[in-house]
């Protein structure tokens, strides 16, 4: 397992994103969750993810990993993510971390 990001993620409006760095992508709430049942991780947009937490605003502990095998945690949200170039963790309404 490779840790990509670990630290505090500043949240606003319960959301943050993983999106391409060199793109004008505008990930929307509706498009990110199109056709999905789970509301915690929107993975319907190509090359982007929309993350939702229970905290409306403030810092949230966050860890992003790339796993070689299925995780064995009891509570986990998992999605296939294929980046298009470099990607960044981006709080709502802010620049990348």
What does this molecule look like?
By secondary structure, the protein is mostly beta strands. The protein has one domain (2-91). Helices cover 4% and strands 37% of the residues. The strands form two sheets. A four-stranded antiparallel sheet has the order 3-4-2-6. A two-stranded antiparallel sheet has the order 1-5. A hairpin with a 6-residue loop joins strand 3 and strand 4 (49-52). The longest helix is centred in the N-terminal third of the chain and has 4 residues, at 29-32. The mean pLDDT is 81.
Task: Please outline the helices and strands.
Elements: E1 2-11, E2 15-20, H1 29-32, E3 41-42, E4 49-52, E5 58-66, E6 87-91
Antiparallel strand pairs: 1-5, 2-4, 2-6, 3-4
Give a quick summary of the entry.
The protein is mainly beta and 97 residues long. The chain has 1 helix and 6 strands. The protein is 4% helix and 37% strand.
